[in-house]
Amino acid sequence: MTKTPIKIFAYFSLLIISIFLSCTRSNQNKNKYQNYQTEEADTIIGKSISFPKALKNIKNGSITQADSIIDILNNSECIVSIIDATCLKCIYFRLNLLDSIFRVNLPPNIERVFVINIENRAVPYFLREMYPAINAKGTLLLDTAYVFEKSNRILSPNENHRIFFIDSNGKIAQYGDPLIDQSILYKYVSLSTESH
């Protein structure tokens, strides 16, 4: 069975139309998301942040209450990174790399805090399989119910809103992912040196 030029043209036309429509729809969604990001960005700077007592501290492979650490964090400047524990890349790459970048570039008095989102039932697996790969020297806090993001009203899928600098007043002074935009790191360094 041979295909006639009309059938080939029809298949080709359908392919072109479907690609065109999917690209158009994708751009509309992208613009809608960019507008959402802009609106969200306007509300994040200056937002008060606190560390809920429901968070758990991970140290030396064991989980403890984070009360004393949280009391210290609620009264100090810190850089906070929210990490998704279900993402291997986030643990092996992002967490360790961000900690290294912040450790080298920020003064030692700036706390490095990693809030690790994880389901409660996945905690034993995380401790057994993923925790050994963490080289971060910063504070690791487990959040099994998005308590940190919900209580502070900062829940966002945007990676740029999941890393931020908290000033001495407990407010977000700057946000952004230095792995996405290197200029953000210079802003963090500037903020950390201005305050001292």
Automatic annotation (TrEMBL):
Keywords linked to the UniProt accession: Membrane, Transmembrane, Transmembrane helix
Q: Which domain of life does the protein's organism represent? A: Bacteria
**Membrane-spanning intervals of the chain:** 6-24
Report the source organism.
Tenuifilum thalassicum
- This chain belongs to which protein, by name? Redoxin domain-containing protein
